[in-house]
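Re-run with default settings, no changes from the original entry. Doing this only to confirm the output is reproducible before filing.
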Amino acid sequence: MRGLAGPLRGRLCEGLGGGHDRREALKVALELVNVPPGDLPAHIHLDTSKNPSSIRYGLSNVVNGKSETMVVTPIAYLRRGHGRFSINVHKADPDLPIIGCGDIPPG
């Protein structure tokens, strides 16, 4: 289990996905404080939180400051050898301003 770097508090926990292929899955748990009301979109983006680019994985919306999502990818994919990744949480406005972010640390 590893935390995120930056103002977003979260955990990356290894686990196993279900089904016949038994692909590796990653549990992403987010917790934010002082968030606006409503469902807040969250994503894993390519690049750092200072310079996010395209969305790589969608996460469950943050509701009441919390979100948990199982992402079908090994933690090693996000932590080494495939570029940098970050997690962004957006306000649910048309232009999706970022209200929380954090880089996934290499390792």
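The two ends are 12 Å apart (CA to CA). Residues 2-103 form a domain with the Immunoglobulin-like fold (CATH 2.60.40).
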